[in-house]
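G., the chain you wanted modeled:
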Amino acid sequence: MRLKDKVAIITGAAQGIGMVFAAGFAKEGAKIVIADVLDGNEAVKAVEKAGSEAIYVKTDITKQDDCDAMVKAAIDRFGSIDILINNAAIFGDIVQKPFMEVSTKEWDRVMAVNTGGPFHCTKAVYPYMKEKGGKIINMGSAIIFEGVPGIPHYVASKGAVMAFTRCMARELGEHNINVNCIAPGFTHSPGGDKFDQKTKLLDTPLEDMHMPLRCLKRIPYPEDFIGTAVFLASEDSRNITGQLIVNDCGMNFH
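Predicted structure as C-alpha cells:
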C-alpha cells in the first residue's frame, strides 16, 4: 500500500497501459481519476475490483479548459491531487509510411495530443501540487533511440516528452514536485498491436524484429510497467527527478 490515500490522475486510462496503471495503483491504495475521450466506465470497474475508488472524467487533453475541468472534478471528489500520469497518446491509429506522405494535419494532431496533452495537464495540476508537492510521470517511448522510419511525428512527439520532463523537473523542483519519464519499448497493448497490424514499411512483425535485440527474451505487456510507475509515484523515489527510465527488456542502453 505504497500509495495509500493518494489521488492519481491517469490520462488515457480507458484502455491499454492506462487502465492497467489504474488497477495497479488502486491495489497500492490510490484513488483514481480516469481521464479519457473514450468511455472510462470499464476502467472505473477495474479500480473498484482492485479495492479502491475511481471517477471517470471525459477529457480532451488538447484543450486546456478540459484539463482544468478534469482537475476540478478530482478536487471536488477526492480533495487533493498527488500524482499525474500523462499517459494519453496517439499511436495505434498511426499508419507507418514515408515521411513525405505524412500530412501537416497528421503531424499537428499527433503533436497536439502527445506533447500538448502533458503540457496542458501539468499546467492544470500545478496550482494544487505547488503547496504540498507531487509526482508527475510522463509516458515517453524507447522509440526515440531507435530512429524508426515512417512515423516521424510520433517519434518527435516522444522526444519532446523527454525534453519537457527535464524542463519541468528543473522548474517544479523548488515546489517538491518530482517529474520523471518512463520509456517503454514496443508493448503488446491494444494500441501497439493495432499499429503493428497495419504497418506499411515493414514486412516483419515488430515482435519478431525486436526479440533478438533484447537482453531479456520476454514479450512486454502493460503489466510490466506497473512497478516502475508505482516506484516513481511513491516516496521510494523522492530524490529522483528529471530522469528517463527505459523499460524495454534491455533493447536500448543509455
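The first strand starts at residue 7 and ends at 11.

Shout if anything looks off.
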